[in-house]
Each structure stands twice: as structure tokens, then as C-alpha cells.
Amino acid sequence: MFQHLYFQHDINNPKFPTVKQDNFYGRVENGVYIATSYSSNITANIANLVNTLEDFCIEAVIKIQANDANKDAFAGIYFGEADSQKENTNLHYISLDSKQHIFIGENRCLIPFIDLFRTEYKLGDYNKIKIYKQGQFIYYFINDTFIYHNDISDLIQGGECAGLLIYAGNT
After folding, report:
1. Which of 44, 87, 140, 151 sits between 20 and 30 A of 28, alpha carbons compared?
2. Cβ-proximal residues to 82 (8 Å cutoff; 6+ apart), any chain
3. pTM of the entire structure?
4. pLDDT reported for residue 69
């Protein structure tokens, strides 16, 4: 797959989402971006210039943890339209949990449509997750290993957003 870098976000860039709110705290500590969600699922928009109707690749290296050690952790990346007031609202995502499961879905489903247990996923460590869209197909990767693809020709498409998913109670 041919790729060229369209944008890369440096966590030291002042436009990176570093805010403190009642339900979210995004900050940079020791060269690492740390995003914590307290009371609701958060989508932290990293890019507003991705034309999701064209081919693209989004990747992030993430490590997840639950704010409460007795609960599971969940986090991931997404693309699509995050504004629920727009007609093309549809987020496609890949997320990880703290039990070595990888979830793939889109927000028009009530639950993820794929739940994979993969040994390529390193528990308690940093993992690279990637979404690659080419034509009508989306390809999903964990630590540079292909794990799933789906045809999106019959789904609503559009939007210019890409970012991080931080589920309630997770960092």
C-alpha cells in the first residue's frame, strides 16, 4: 500500500487538544499525550481536514488503563463525522480493551460488529493501531499486523474528523 504523510500531530503543537473540563483532561506529560475521561465517552478530535471519502491511513500508538483498577479499560481511534447534528454522522473505529480484545465497529451499530482476541496486542504496553481506507474497503491493523477488513459501500460515509476515543473512566 502506497502512503505519503499528509499530516502528523506533534503533541507539543499548541493546537493539540490539551484542555481540562469536568469530564475530560488532556495534557502532555514527559513527552506523552495523556487523555483522561471521567464521566462520559469522549471523542478527542485530532484532525478536521481528513476527507474520509478519499483514501487515507490513520494510526496511533496508544496505551490504555482504567482509572479504577477494578474495571476494564477501553480506548481507540476513529474517523468520520463526529457532529451528531449532521446528516453524515457515522464514526468508524477500532478500540482496545484491557483483556486483549480488539473491537471494530461504527456508531450506527449499538455494539461493535467485530470482537477479536489477538496475540499481537501487547497487554499493558503501547500498541500501534491503524485504520487504512482504500476505495470502498477499510483495513484494520494492530502492531502492523492486518486483522480485519470490511466493505463500506452500503454505509453512510462522509465527514472530515479523525481522532481518539477515550471511554468513560479511562486514560
Report:
1. 140
2. 43, 45, 89, 91, 159, 161, 163
3. 0.79
4. 78
